[in-house]
Here is the input.
Amino acid sequence: MDRHVIDLPWILRRIIVSAFVLPRRPKRSALAYEAIWEDTGSPLVSNTKNLAENIQKLTGIPTVVGMRYGSPSLSDALNELKLCDEILLVPLYPQYANSTRKTTIEKVRSLSHDKNLYLLAPYYSHPDYIEAMTTQIKNHITPNTEHLLLSFHGLPERHLTKADPTGHHCLQSNNCCSTHSKAHDTCYRHQCLETARFISEKIQLPTSLSFQSRLGKLPWLKPYTDDEIKRLAKSGIHNIAVACPAFAVDNLETLEEIGIRGRELFIHAGGTELKLIPSLNNEPHWVSFFADWLKQPVENFETL
Here is the structure.
């Protein structure tokens, strides 16, 4: 029901959620989660908590986890920090989107009127992040890997135009993402393309980009990951690796959607092997970079 996730008037969101989402999605999601569930529970929660613990060890800064939806909640996290006067909000999403960063920022603001709040900016093109991603990819590809697919989480195209502060740039031309504009500060597509460009420059493999996890019949960002996986297999490519640079830690969209269903789709379409590159999770080089960012003076961060 978040207006930043389904960006329609309340009554239409209610109809969509009640009539189309709730009757089907929970059962499908439960089966998907069952396929990736670990002894410690949800990989998303355990990976994120481990990341927070490692960050705290390196920085000495009290570091807690809050989920926009799920447990532990943002309210739970902020309650753990109730004795802190200054709080740095660190959205783990590398790229900006209203349905990820904006909704999280608004919720934290609403819960923290008496705190000095600071924000880590999107890090989609930060050299440390690009280095961490390329190192992770190089450490997991094999000599047989013929192609690297960078699969980002998808968004409805309408989300881009709504986030465009100029009101007339995003998706208005074929080269909008490569034409300089203030809109790029909040353009998810531009930021994904930049991430992919920087990674592909450092990886000695043919590379393509796609967007996964679409829902419903509205136009979403293209090309779609399932279509790209089938295209690669039918073009005669037998071994591909897939990395998901929109996620800092592994979760349902990486482990099940790509690692299980994506692999099955690739093989069914004629491919031999699809290798999922793990997200950065708690890789030491990534944790070290992240800790260095967070140890900066608060003046270096945006004030909320």
User: Anything to note?
Assistant: The first helix runs from residue 10 to 21. The first strand starts at residue 86 and ends at 89.
